[in-house]
Amino acid sequence: MTAYILQRLIQSVLVLLAVSVVVFFAVYGIGDPIELLVSPQVSQAERLALIKRLGLDLPVWQQYLTFMGNALKGDLGRSFVHGVSAIELILARAPATFELVLLAMSMAIAVGVPLGLLAGLDPESRPSRIIMAGTVLGYSLPSFWKGMMLILLFAVLLGWLPTAGRGETVTVLGIQTSLFTLDGLRHLILPALNLAIPILALVIRLVAAGAAEAMTQDYVKYARAKGVRAKRIIGRHVLRNILIPVVTVLGIEFGSLVAFSTITETVFAWPGMGKLLIDSVYQLDRPVVVAYVLLATLLFVTVNFLVDILYAALDPRVKLTGEMA
Amino acid sequence: MSVPASIPTEADTPLRRKVLQRINSRPTTRGAAILLGIMVLLALLAPVIAPQNPHDLASLSVMDNRLAPGERGMSGMLFLLGTDAQGRDMLSAILYGLRTSLMVGLAATACALAIGIAAGLAAAQFGGVVDAVLMRIVDFMLGFPSILVALVLLASIGRGVDKVILAIVLVQWAQYARLMRAAALVERRKEYIEAAVNFGLPTRYIMFTHLLPNSVGSVLVVASISIAGAITLEATLSFLGVGVPVTEPSLGLLIANGFEFLLSGEYWISVFPGIALVLLIMSLNLVGDRLRRSFNVRS
Question: Which residues cross the membrane (chain B) (predicted)?
Answer without folding.
Answer: 31-50, 102-126, 138-158, 205-231, 267-288
